Amino acid sequence: MSAKDHLVIFDTTLRDGEQSPGATMNKAEKLRIAKALEKLRVDVIEAGFAIASEGDFEAVKSIAETIKESTVCSLARAVDVDIDRAAEAIRPAERGRIHTFIATSPIHMQYKLMLSPDEVIEQAVRAVKRARSHVDDVEFSCEDAGRSELDFLCRIIEAAIDAGARTINIPDTVGYAIPEQFGETIRQIIHRVPNADKAIFSVHCHNDLGLAVSNSLAAVMNGARQVECTINGLGERAGNASLEEIVMAVRTRQDLFDVETRIDAQHIVPASRLVSTITGFPVQPNKAIVGANAFAHESGIHQDGVIKHRETYEIMRAQDVGWHTNSLVMGKHSGRNAFRTRLKELGIEFETESELNEAFSRFKALADLKHEIFDEDLQAIASDTLQSEEDARFSLVCMKVCSETGVVPRASLTLLMDGREHKVEGEGSGPVDATFRAIESLVDSGCNLQLYSVNAITSGTDAQGEVTVRLERGGRIVNGVGADTDIVIASAKAYIEALNQISRGGVRQHPQAADV
Ligand code: KIV
Ligand code: ZN
């Protein structure tokens, strides 16, 4: 048995991560991510905000039905309707948690809630008791704790613990804290709250000043035993603390930390890729742990050192976090069983045989174009297949693009819209522009293109390009992702996927909105 404390890893990719503009995920996508998180052995999965919409409720419920090894949690504002809905969504879970919160900073209490501090305490206590009437595992958060008064925090936390909260979360909601000061705040709270020994203290840091991970680690050094974080640091505005950075910092610097996590780090890179593919948020190459360059040595001096003795320039081993140097997995002659097995190893399982068949034929088509198929290719194939199985209003049948020096690029596409085929054409400043114009000549979506980006999924000129298209309409932002060895076709797929998401519509409540 280790003498070290257990650090609870609470992943909120599916809730706070989804609050990143455009990172909306559907139920099937959330379930895939939840399974990857379970494989990673995260302790708690915050599966969503059940009251936000029917879709969010269903997603939390299906995660609660499926996940066995992690606690499944739903967020709820400190009001009865939210708490009851959260309880209903997590009911099927083997281990369920309700996470309720209310703002505690003077600015939020005065301008957002329009409540006095005493009224806020009263509401918090009522909420915790109501949540406890449904489940034993209740977490209470003091929203905007980073800008709250220490005395008031201590008062409300003591009351919440008395009311039955088992985890007390101190969020730096607006990313205002500085490590030394935040660590000291946590130390003071734990020291001053008389019943602090009856709860686990948690932190939830945002990255507005680029300090989310540092602040979380400072808190751990001062007694926090749960960290709330997200894969790739996804999250509202500049994001949340990144799970992979927290976990690897604690593991790599065991000389400094009195805690251990139970994360299976080998699944970090696959989980990072999955989240990136599903949300369309690429991982920057120099991102710690999961960026393409995180373990690449460019300079001759570094390369020479690493060859002589790896630890001269490497503090972690790439393979320990799931990077495989030779991740060539399959080729043209690989069979259906090998394909299914490899997908399973990557955490991808299709619900129906027809999905598997469709993915397998995409794999065969890709293997004809590109002889080496990597894990990343398989992940893109799976995402494409699962996207196309959903209630898609639009889809691409075929397309042709002419691009020639001195001639205006032209695109002709055949599209399916509401089950009927349409032929469309367009001209533009380049082949992608011509393609988007051709699609819009039929759809006339009224969307603004906010982002268009292309990333090579693997290396080499025969690699698949993964295109992300971000569209905005009436304040709603969606991302569409498409992959193909032809980047113009990938662009068309991504644009069409974004249009499908726009057409699915749906209004969701934001958990931190004022109108409770
Ligand atoms: O940032 C925040 O304060 C939150 C809470 C709802 C925990 O996300
Ligand atoms: Zn947050």
UniProtKB/TrEMBL annotation:
<dbReference type="GO" id="GO:0005829">
    <property type="term" value="C:cytosol"/>
</dbReference>
<dbReference type="Pfam" id="PF00682">
    <property type="entry name" value="HMGL-like"/>
</dbReference>
<comment type="subunit">
    <text>Homodimer.</text>
</comment>
<keyword id="KW-0432">Leucine biosynthesis</keyword>
<dbReference type="InterPro" id="IPR013709">
    <property type="entry name" value="2-isopropylmalate_synth_dimer"/>
</dbReference>
<dbReference type="InterPro" id="IPR000891">
    <property type="entry name" value="PYR_CT"/>
</dbReference>
<feature type="binding site">
    <location>
        <position position="206"/>
    </location>
    <ligand>
        <name>Mn(2+)</name>
    </ligand>
</feature>
<keyword id="KW-0963">Cytoplasm</keyword>
<dbReference type="Pfam" id="PF22617">
    <property type="entry name" value="HCS_D2"/>
</dbReference>
<dbReference type="Pfam" id="PF08502">
    <property type="entry name" value="LeuA_dimer"/>
</dbReference>
<dbReference type="InterPro" id="IPR036230">
    <property type="entry name" value="LeuA_allosteric_dom_sf"/>
</dbReference>
<dbReference type="InterPro" id="IPR005671">
    <property type="entry name" value="LeuA_bact_synth"/>
</dbReference>
<protein>
    <recommendedName>
        <fullName>2-isopropylmalate synthase</fullName>
        <ecNumber>2.3.3.13</ecNumber>
    </recommendedName>
</protein>
<dbReference type="GO" id="GO:0009098">
    <property type="term" value="P:L-leucine biosynthetic process"/>
</dbReference>
<keyword id="KW-0100">Branched-chain amino acid biosynthesis</keyword>
<keyword id="KW-0808">Transferase</keyword>
<comment type="function">
    <text>Catalyzes the condensation of the acetyl group of acetyl-CoA with 3-methyl-2-oxobutanoate (2-ketoisovalerate) to form 3-carboxy-3-hydroxy-4-methylpentanoate (2-isopropylmalate).</text>
</comment>
<comment type="pathway">
    <text>Amino-acid biosynthesis; L-leucine biosynthesis; L-leucine from 3-methyl-2-oxobutanoate: step 1/4.</text>
</comment>
<feature type="binding site">
    <location>
        <position position="240"/>
    </location>
    <ligand>
        <name>Mn(2+)</name>
    </ligand>
</feature>
<feature type="domain" description="Pyruvate carboxyltransferase">
    <location>
        <begin position="7"/>
        <end position="269"/>
    </location>
</feature>
<feature type="region of interest" description="Regulatory domain">
    <location>
        <begin position="395"/>
        <end position="516"/>
    </location>
</feature>
<dbReference type="InterPro" id="IPR054691">
    <property type="entry name" value="LeuA/HCS_post-cat"/>
</dbReference>
<dbReference type="InterPro" id="IPR013785">
    <property type="entry name" value="Aldolase_TIM"/>
</dbReference>
<keyword id="KW-0464">Manganese</keyword>
<comment type="similarity">
    <text>Belongs to the alpha-IPM synthase/homocitrate synthase family. LeuA type 1 subfamily.</text>
</comment>
<keyword id="KW-0028">Amino-acid biosynthesis</keyword>
<dbReference type="InterPro" id="IPR050073">
    <property type="entry name" value="2-IPM_HCS-like"/>
</dbReference>
<dbReference type="GO" id="GO:0003985">
    <property type="term" value="F:acetyl-CoA C-acetyltransferase activity"/>
</dbReference>
<feature type="binding site">
    <location>
        <position position="16"/>
    </location>
    <ligand>
        <name>Mn(2+)</name>
    </ligand>
</feature>
<dbReference type="GO" id="GO:0030145">
    <property type="term" value="F:manganese ion binding"/>
</dbReference>
<keyword id="KW-0479">Metal-binding</keyword>
<dbReference type="InterPro" id="IPR002034">
    <property type="entry name" value="AIPM/Hcit_synth_CS"/>
</dbReference>
<dbReference type="GO" id="GO:0003852">
    <property type="term" value="F:2-isopropylmalate synthase activity"/>
</dbReference>
<feature type="binding site">
    <location>
        <position position="204"/>
    </location>
    <ligand>
        <name>Mn(2+)</name>
    </ligand>
</feature>
